[in-house]
């Protein structure tokens, strides 16, 4: 969930260990929950990922992810996310999103 707005962004089902030290996902929970912005800072050409609702910086997306899952790696700042365990999703008001996790 977006730490600032509570909007669902990524599913732990799509999380994987990319070996980069950052939480990495193959895709957002839905295409419309994130926005993309060209980022040429620090002498690099990257694509920034921002939350739709809060317009907060989430991280970057790269084209070096698992090929069998679309080839994208969403490298996300863990501090921008709030993890809700599956068994707490109903209690926290996110029961309708259980289908994205299992």
From TrEMBL:
Its UniProt entry gives the catalysed reaction(s) as: L-methionyl-[protein] + [thioredoxin]-disulfide + H2O = L-methionyl-(R)-S-oxide-[protein] + [thioredoxin]-dithiol
One GO cellular-component annotation of the UniProt record comes to: cytoplasm
UniProt-listed Enzyme Commission number(s) = 1.8.4.12
Coiled-coil annotated spans? none
Ranges for domain MsrB? 1-86
Q: Where is the signal peptide?
A: none
Which PROSITE patterns does this entry report, sorted A to Z? MSRB
Any idea which UniProt keywords this protein has?
A: Oxidoreductase
Enzyme category, top tier:
oxidoreductase
Q: Which domain of life is it from?
A: Bacteria
InterPro entries reported in the protein's UniProt record? Met_Sox_Rdtase_MsrB (IPR028427), Met_Sox_Rdtase_MsrB_dom (IPR002579), Mss4-like_sf (IPR011057)
**GO molecular function annotations of the record:** peptide-methionine (R)-S-oxide reductase activity
Q: Matching Pfam families, A to Z?
A: SelR
UniProt record, GO biological process: protein repair; response to oxidative stress
Q: Does the keyword Oxidoreductase apply?
A: yes
Mind telling me what this protein is named? peptide-methionine (R)-S-oxide reductase
What species is this protein from? Answer: Fusobacterium animalis ATCC 51191
Instruction: List the top taxonomic levels of the source.
Output: Bacteria, Fusobacteriati, Fusobacteriota, Fusobacteriia, Fusobacteriales
What would be the name of the gene that encodes this protein? msrA
